[in-house]
Amino acid sequence: PTPQEISEIKRSNYTSGDQMLLGLACNIQYGANPELQRILHKTFVDVMLAESQKEGENLNRLTNRAVYLLCWMRRYLPKLFINWKSPEIGCFIYLGGCRNENEALFMSFLGRLPLDVLILCPDLNIKCCLEDKLLYEVNYLESLAITEYPEESSQVKIGTAAYHAERELDTLMYQDSGIYRNQQYVKANVINLQTMYEEIKLLWDQELKYRPNFSTVNGVVNIPVIFSKISGVKDGSVS
């Protein structure tokens, strides 16, 4: 939610979870449809009571999550329930999965309203943190990286079998195997090598990854470099 959305939620200081829920529930106003207001009010209280029973949930954290929930209610529900009459059913489609507990709480709330809620997680590398006893999950093996809902087929990019095989090979080859891809890491530390004169010629043309003390630690590359000053002519060989 934006700071403006948060500031529009009426709230005060609370001493208990029940007092907080009753106070914040007053923000749910749908005077034109008393039945919808009753459903929203009851669902909000039920979801937040279940949330308050989780181990380690404190009042301030619970209040913040309830405010987030109310902000998203105000943002989306007017569109989902425009001219709503029972037993009509709206539809909420969410692409990408829940990234944090606040989003997961909002999805659990929507799932208990007269709504169909569909959560699409096509990229298996991005995990959805939603867990709910009412949730029906379907899992497949194929994965697809997509950033926005595909309204046209041209927006979808599907990798070939060779492409996915190359990505798997990259993962096997370039993770803690001593083999590195060019520009694989973005952060680096420079290490100045203290060398003998004879070593300069040996190390000068050598790739960085073969020089002494080259390493990768926590995604940072330690790069050994030569910084030497040679004064005079070795062995007097002026020619």
In short:
The chain has helices spanning 3-7, 17-24, 34-52, 59-80, 101-110, 161-173, 197-204; strands at 90-95, 115-120, 187-193, 215-217, 220-226. It has 239 residues and is of the alpha/beta class.
What percent of residues are in strands? 5-15%
Compute the number of helices.
Answer: 7
Oligomer kind = single chain
Whole-number radius of gyration? 29 Å
Number of domains: 2
The helix/strand class is: alpha/beta
Shape: elongated
Number of strands: 5
Helix content: 25-40%
- N→C terminal distance: 75 Å
Q: Can you walk through the features of this model?
A:
The protein has 239 residues and is of the alpha/beta class. The protein has helices at residues 3-7, 17-24, 34-52, 59-80, 101-110, 161-173, 197-204, and strands at residues 90-95, 115-120, 187-193, 215-217, 220-226. It folds into two domains: 3-155, no CATH class; 180-228, no CATH class. The protein is built from seven helices and five strands. The N and C termini lie far apart (75 Å). The model has no long low-confidence stretch (mean pLDDT 85).
